[in-house]
Amino acid sequence: MINSRLSRRFGLSVLPFIVLFTMLSRLLPQVAAQQVSSDQVYVDPTMWSGVLLLQSGLMAADAELQQVDRELLSAALSWNGRGVLLVTDPATNAALDRAGDLADHESKVTRLSSAKWRELLDDADAVKNWGASAAIWIDTDRVGAAAILNLESAAHQRLVKCIEGVLAKGGFVRISGDLRWLGTDRVRNRTTLLANCSIQQSSDDEAAEDVAADAACVHLKLLDRMRCVLAKRQLVNLTKGQSLSVTLGATEHYAAPLTQSLKERQLIDWVQWQRALLERQQPIYPDTDRVKHVLAGGSLVIGGGGGMPEDVWKRFVDLAGGENARIVILPTAVEDPSAEPGFEARVMKQAGAEHIVMLPQIARDDVEEAAFLKELDRATGVWFGGGRQWRFVDAYWGTAAWPQLLEVCKRGGVIGGSSAGATIQGDLLIRGAPSGNQIMIADGYRRGLGLLPGVAIDQHFAQRSRFKELENCLAPYPSICGVGIDEQTALVVTGADRCEVLGVGSAWLYPSYEVSESNKADSASRAAMRQEFKSGSVFEFNAH
Question: Whole-angstrom Cα distance, residue 317 to residue 325?
């Protein structure tokens, strides 16, 4: 009943936290960034199994939102037999009591006054018990937020661990009032819940200047009575008639801030914005300089999706060493890699391979384990499966696995893949947005493996009539060479840049070029330069 009422109120797909209380989905990540090299930073997309709801200002004045609050609390109380911790002011307590929703669950409710609860943070055992709750509701006024920010490190960490404990167990956390204590505290160099984030609750010019000046945070602008939810990689605006804004400040490389305004029920991918934040600390990509599109070694098999013919599989296995090949399959691009049936392994065995290992691991600790890295180090061939290419970036970018993958080609091995597994081999990542593959270039997901420098790869090309999309995408970037590959077709790259087309369809080439009077940086020039290479054709990237 709760789920159906909330679905009618907000729509079927907008609030993933509806499914929380039926335990049908994994939800929001806490995103933490750790630098591992000068040009790659790891962003952790690990999921919380709970939901975080934020409201600027205290308890909702809107009757409909009050009802939603009560329904969420009631659901939390009914779920898994765990209790609820309320840290509220007297007015909020009275409003909840008048609603009558908590009367049947009073034995499960722990009430603490927002005026005194911070004193209890010194009691480690009490805080540990709070972390076992099904839900936590915290109201913090400006004084309360300041007190949290001024907590000693031990008490501050107990509070953070308490909230994280509830979220980690699939619980519901609602925090209202002054929210500024939730983000990164630059003064004390510590984070509460939201790493690399600041929350702006003022519309004055001084606050706007702070946003423009701080390029190290994602800035959320939540004015009074606005609310949002963080769930399943998504930040969703729940405020009627008002827009929530998300901003990345100007950097050394990006002169203007990047702002997106979210209307009611609109959402963004939170992990993508964290990645975009870090991306903007690096030089802009693509730049205007043309590069040679050559392999550093080894070979590539780039499949256009839709199923590969036998001669493509045979070529991949032969390039990997035939019966002596050591092949690693990465099914990472699907939602649940561990559930992949292993079709690629079967056809590769039929093509002559004997040693094949599937590595479905995606968590950083797992892909950096010695056993995982050892398989990559010994591999003569690596196959990237189909799905969504951003999942490869989430799993490997900034980890010890990424350079190991590049080394496969450098030592003479072969890397192959189809569909998403084709696109990830390029340099400029096409259709890499987590929010949908109709977005051609996504901030935060601009880079692939770069096995072919300065090349962007698209797939399912003629079958899905993707000509215009790729031409429009490449128009501002004449330094990028574009490749489109049809289904049941593969482009095999050997030597420095020798390309052979296998299969039943064609490969389509959009050469990089210097801008001139006759060749402008526009889609019309791109379309005019398009070349088709049918099955059996051989060409060189840098000869066009």
Answer: 7
Buried-state track 142-164, b at ≥16 Cβ within 10 A, e below 16? eebbebbbebeeebbebbbebbb
Domains 2-185+227-239 and 299-543 in one fold: yes
How many residues in the chain?
544
Please determine, for residue 61, whether its predicted confidence score (pLDDT) is greater than 70: no
Question: So where are the chain's domains?
Answer: 2-185+227-239, 299-543
* CATH code for the structural domain at 2-185+227-239: 3.40.50
b/e map of 408-431 (b: 16 or more CB within 10 Å)?
bbeeebbbbbbbbbbbbbbbbbbb
CB 354 within 8 A of CB 321: no
pLDDT at 13: 35
Tell me the pLDDT tens digit for each residue of 62-98: 666 666 666 666 666 665 556 677 776 666 666 666 5
DSSP H or E segment with residue 109: strand 109-113
DSSP 177-245: E--GGGSEETTTTEESSSTTEEEE---SHHHHHHHHH-TTSEEEE--TT-EEEEETTEEEE--TT--EE
β-strands 135-140, 172-177 pairing: parallel
Integer Cα distance of 241 and 101 in angstroms? 28
DSSP code of residue 78: H
Residue type, 540: E
Helix (H, G, I), strand (E, B) or coil at 476: coil
DSSP code per residue over 408-422: HHHTT-EEEEETHHH
Residue 359 has pLDDT above 80, yes or no: yes
**At a CB cut-off of 8 Å and minimum separation 6, what does 46 contact?**
29, 30, 363
Is residue 173 within a helix (H) or strand (E), and if so which, with residue range?
strand 172-177
Q: What is the DSSP string of 91-106?
A: HHHHHHHHHTTTGGGG
Spatial CA neighbour of 193 closest among 408, 29, 425, 388: 29
220: tokens are 């959320």
167 alpha carbon, distance to own chain's centre: 19
Token pair in block for residue 75: 């659901």
State the pLDDT confidence band at 249, using cuts at 50, 70 and 90.
Answer: very high
Q: Where are the strands (E) in 305-461, listed by range? A: 326-330, 355-358, 381-384, 414-418, 455-458
Using 50, 70 and 90 to split pLDDT, how confident is the model at 178? confident
Class of domain 299-543: alpha beta
Per-residue pLDDT band for 26 (boundaries 50, 70, 90) equals very low
Burial tier of 511 (Cβ tally within 10 Å: 0-12, 13-18, 19+): middle
CA angle 462, 467, 471 (to 5 degrees): 155
